[in-house]
Each structure stands twice: as C-alpha cells, then as structure tokens.
Q: What sequence folds into this?
C-alpha cells in the first residue's frame, strides 16, 4: 500500500537528531511504498514560530536527502480549524472551562491527597449561563475541552503492537487555549483527514495522545489512519533533546562536517534489530528498514559512535563521488591524494588539514624533530632518490636507509613520518610520498 505520511515540526528552533529520526522514518516509508511525504509546519504558535526556523528545517531535510511531495503551513489553514471547532462547540463536544491554571493545580492536588487520579472532573459542564456571564464579566476567557467518550480505545500500533487506553482515566483534553489559539491536537487531526494521511508515525511520547486523536478521527471522518510510535533517542547521558536548547541539531552536524548519509543511517538504524553499518544510499536504507525492527526502549545517540560510522563511510567513498566537495574545500590533489588520505579522516573537512601539510607546510603544532636523529635525517636525504616517483619509491628508499643505518621498524619509519608530516600517525607514506614530491621532501629533511 502506498502510504501517505507526514512530518509536522514546529518552526520554533533548529531540529535535532530525534526530530530527524521521525522525519527519516516517515520518508523511508513513503519511499519504500511509492507513497507521499508531506512536510507540514505546525506554526499555529505565532509568538514562537519563526520563518527562519522553517527555512532551516527545509534546508536540514534537503541535506538529509528528504524531498517532500508537498509542503503545508498550518497558519494558512486557520479557517478550516475554525469551521470544525464551531461544529464541535455546537454539538457540545467542545465545552468552555473557566478555571485558572492555579485553580486546576489546586484541584489536582486535592484529588491526589484523596488517592484519586488527577483527572479533570468535568465540573465546567455543570456551569449555568449566569455563572459563565459572571466569569466573562471578571475578564476570564474560557479554554475549550473536548468531551471524550468514556470508552476503551484500541489500535494495532505498527511498532508497539496491540494498544488500549481507557478514556475514563484520561482528562478531557484542552484543544483551544484561553487566548483562542489551537493546541496541536485538533489542527493535526483535521489536516490528516483533509490531506489523506494513511499512517501517523511519530515518537512514543505521543502514545497517550492517540486515544484522543482516534476519537476525533472517528467523530470527524469515516477513516482512521494507522499509528506507529517509534522509540526515542536520548543523549549519551540519557537526556532528551530540545530544539530550543540546540541539542544535537542537524545544522551543527552539517556545519561540523558529518556526512548526511551517516547521520541518516545512524538516526534510523540505532534502536532497531539491524546493526548500524555503512550503506550505499537512502534507497538501500529504505529497503533495509521496517517498523517491526524498531525496539520499544529508548536508544542513546553518541556522537563518538556517529563519528566511527562517518569515518567508515568516507573510507569507502570513491573520488568521483567526493570530487566536487573537495574542490569546494580548495583541495586540488586529485584522486591520488584522496585515496592516500581518506582512510585517516573521520569528517571531510579534516582532508584540508592534510592538503595544507602538502601545499603549505608542516602544521603549527608539528612534532619537533629530535636532535638525536640529525645524522639519520642527513643520511635519509643523501639516499633520497630523484623523481619520477611512484608507490614503490617509499619502499626502495626506506630499504636503502635501513641498510645504511641499521634502523628498522618504528625507529626507521617514525622519524621519517614526523619529518614529512609533523604527525605521529597518518596516511600510508607509500601513497603520500609521491604527492609530496622530491623538493618538499628534501626541504623537510634538511
């Protein structure tokens, strides 16, 4: 079945890796089933929503390889929400409540003290017209609650299996605030109905909302979408992510040089029965992923683990795939240089450091040459072969040095690496030496 799915972020900050997990899972389902992916901005909170954040979300999704089939903004659909809200009010399913936040808090505390669940008692349903008039005269504005059918709501969750919620243990939810603005629930259901969404895939922190939304779907439409609630990602210390705090934002990952494919693979496969490993592209990820592989427990997202995956992907990346991005970094060493250094970088920007070692010189923090090796360097320079050089030059040169000096192993190779690169580790020098060339090698041994 071709699934119509949606990702509905609030443009109130930069989306983080947890948001990306939801977006990616939805996108992969659309890709795998030949369906449709809707990017729908939940921007009804005009005070906190910003256009620059919406643009940033679009850029982040594009970077990941997600291509929405359509883009919607809830702020442009207020008339549709108002029309449905008016019908629900007229039918008595939306009812006004005048309690303040403090009054509701005190009521909940009294219920807990009596050993009762802190469920709204529906006292507003008993208000008289005179009481409402008095509240209005005091300047109180009502918030509006949805009157739930107090029944059991069940559904077969695409990740969690059979689920049931007893609605008599759930407070009638507030759908419209006292200032007249909508909370997420009602606009979301209306949009899902009108946009033909067939499956709602989101984090399992929304499980408790599902019974309310199913009741709204049943009231407003003859179709209820399927639901699937995936596990959440946390930081390595077990904390949740926040857009407002910028935790693990995609923007920061992009700017720090992580590969989009690495981020996508890691965000999707962590917390599933599939091991996290390199894949060729998003299509391969779509083929591999399935909702029934998703765990029901939260998974920790560690940047160090992402770095390891990122390195593995770069180490297998061919030059023609990366050539344009290398040019963008002003790295002009061509295929030979890329093949020489790709095995020694974790993120692509690091390749510029190695190119600077070739073109500019030793880095400022280069390891100092030991005075004890002065005679060794002099002999190495004396034995340095003239060009042309190829991948056999390093072996023939070091063999000659070994014969002349008696050095071998680390005592032979490490001083040469330090002299040529300023580093104690790095690319195989058999491939790196021809790129460096005779003159620069000679200068660094002098």
A:
């Amino acid at each position: 079945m071709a699934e119509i799915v949606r990702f509905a972020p609030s443009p109130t900050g930069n989306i983080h890796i947890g948001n990306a997990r939801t977006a990616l899972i939805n996108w992969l389902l659309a890709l795998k089933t030949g369906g449709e992916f809707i990017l729908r901005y939940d921007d009804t909170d005009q005070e906190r929503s910003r256009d620059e954040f919406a643009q940033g979300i679009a850029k982040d999704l594009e970077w990941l390889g997600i291509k929405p089939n359509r883009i919607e903004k809830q702020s442009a659909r207020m008339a549709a929400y108002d029309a449905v809200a008016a019908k629900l009010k007229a039918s008595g399913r939306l009812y006004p409540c005048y309690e303040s936040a403090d009054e509701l808090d005190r009521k909940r505390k009294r219920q807990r003290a009596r050993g009762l669940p802190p469920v709204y008692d529906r006292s507003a349903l008993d208000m008289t017209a005179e009481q409402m008039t008095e509240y209005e005269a005091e300047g109180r504005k009502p918030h509006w609650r949805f009157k739930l059918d107090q029944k059991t709501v069940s559904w077969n969750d695409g990740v969690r299996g059979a689920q049931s919620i007893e609605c008599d243990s759930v407070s009638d939810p507030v759908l419209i605030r006292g200032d007249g603005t909508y909370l997420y629930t009602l606009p979301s259901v209306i949009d899902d109905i009108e946009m033909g969404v067939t499956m709602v895939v989101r984090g399992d922190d929304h499980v408790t909302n599902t019974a309310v939304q199913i009741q709204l779907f049943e009231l407003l439409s003859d179709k209820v979408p399927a639901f699937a609630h995936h596990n959440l990602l946390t930081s390595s210390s077990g904390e949740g992510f926040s857009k407002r705090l910028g935790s693990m934002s995609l923007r920061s990952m992009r700017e720090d040089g992580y590969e989009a494919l690495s981020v996508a693979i890691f965000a999707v496969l962590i917390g599933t029965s599939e091991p996290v490993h390199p894949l060729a592209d998003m299509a391969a990820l779509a083929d591999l992923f399935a909702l029934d592989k998703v765990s029901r427990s939260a998974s920790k997202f560690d940047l160090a683990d992402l770095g390891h995956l990122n390195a593995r992907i770069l180490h297998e990346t061919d030059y023609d795939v990366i050539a344009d991005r290398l040019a963008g970094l002003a790295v002009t060493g061509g295929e030979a240089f890329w093949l020489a250094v790709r095995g020694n970088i974790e993120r692509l920007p690091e390749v510029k450091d190695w190119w600077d070692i070739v073109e500019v010189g030793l880095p400022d923090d280069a390891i100092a040459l030991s005075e004890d090796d002065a005679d060794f360097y002099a002999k190495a320079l004396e034995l340095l072969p003239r060009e042309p050089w190829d991948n056999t030059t390093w072996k023939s040169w070091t063999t000659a040095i070994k014969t002349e000096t008696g050095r071998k192993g680390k005592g032979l190779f490490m001083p040469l690496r330090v002299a040529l690169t300023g580093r104690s580790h790095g690319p195989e020098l058999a491939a790196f030496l021809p790129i460096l060339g005779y003159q620069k090698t000679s200068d660094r041994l002098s």
